[in-house]
Amino acid sequence: MRPQRAFLEVLVDDTTITPALSGICAGFESGEWRARQLAKRLFQDIIDFALSHSERQDFSSDTGVEMITRAVQKIYTSEKYQSRGEFGELLLHVTLREVFRTQVAVSKIFFKDASNDTIKGFDAVHIVENNDKLELWLGEVKFYSDIARAIRDVRKELHEHLATDYLRREFMAIEGKIDEKWKHAPTLRRMLHENVSLDEIFDNITIPVLLTYESKVIKDRVTELKSNPNVSPSSTVEAYRVNFETEVRKGWDKFVASGLPPRVKIRLILVPMHLKSTLIRALHERLMSWQEATA
Question: Could you tell me which InterPro entries the record lists for this protein (predicted)?
Fold first, then answer.
């Protein structure tokens, strides 16, 4: 069941610059950055993230336990979880669905051959309905603690993944994984057909790039809230928002200065965190508890 109220708060949303910028905040509770609450929110979308369109349509009270079991096993079953990328892909998925109202075109996780495999290519394949046209959103995510490293690595992947030969191979792979029962399947297949010029396809592609990092502004906010427990957080929230935006825009400056590929439309999504290790641990514990409960 998807929540009726959005969990993620968009504190920066600037579409007047290129690339467009979004700064996303997970919020605070009882003086802490909401790591455990974010982990819970991400797992509310586990079915939507990990299963195919047909399987999601068949979800019911009779099939629910079996499908949840299948979904959580798709993530990973390894104890070596600190450097795995699935949680970043799940965060990207939830952000796209909740903030940008996308629809899943292909679940990359669904096509894993084994639960601990890694998936190549774009980290999300979603669409947005824009009037009578489909916009294809091919997501990239770097679930890192350091913004400079995240920018460096994602820049390299953007150039690699947007090269003509790579894109053609990726489009062929996506075409082969589109669910026949999905209503947009014929339209997306026509859009990605090898006879369609990449110049035309680029007009209908957005590359959402989500980068996480451990943030000084978030750290300072936690320190402030803990040191002033009797002060209402709302009385100081405006100063926090100003500092948040300043930091996020500096991240945008570094991202643009790194040297981005031409032609394609990119949307930069920055998600500052407190401690990545705390969020990773909360996510891993929740995944393991789900796997144990459905074993």
Answer: AbpA_HamA_C
Q: Is residue 224 part of a domain?
A: yes
Give domain status of residue 1, yes or no: no
**Which DSSP helix (H) or strand (E) runs through 214?**
strand 205-214
Q: What are the structure tokens assigned to 274, written together?
A: 């407190």
CA angle 261, 262, 266 (to 5 degrees): 75
Asked whether residue 270 is assigned to any structural domain, the reply reads: yes
Domain count, the chain: 1
Q: In this structure, is residue 3 part of a structural domain?
A: no
Tens place of pLDDT for every residue, the chain, 295 residues?
455 689 999 999 999 999 999 999 999 999 999 999 999 999 888 888 888 888 888 776 666 667 777 777 766 555 555 555 788 999 999 999 999 999 999 987 766 544 444 567 899 999 999 888 899 999 999 999 999 999 999 999 999 999 999 999 999 999 989 999 999 999 999 999 999 999 899 899 999 999 999 999 999 999 999 999 999 999 999 999 999 999 999 999 999 999 999 889 999 999 999 999 999 999 888 887 877 766 6
Dig out the tokens for 140 from the structure. Answer: 């990239």
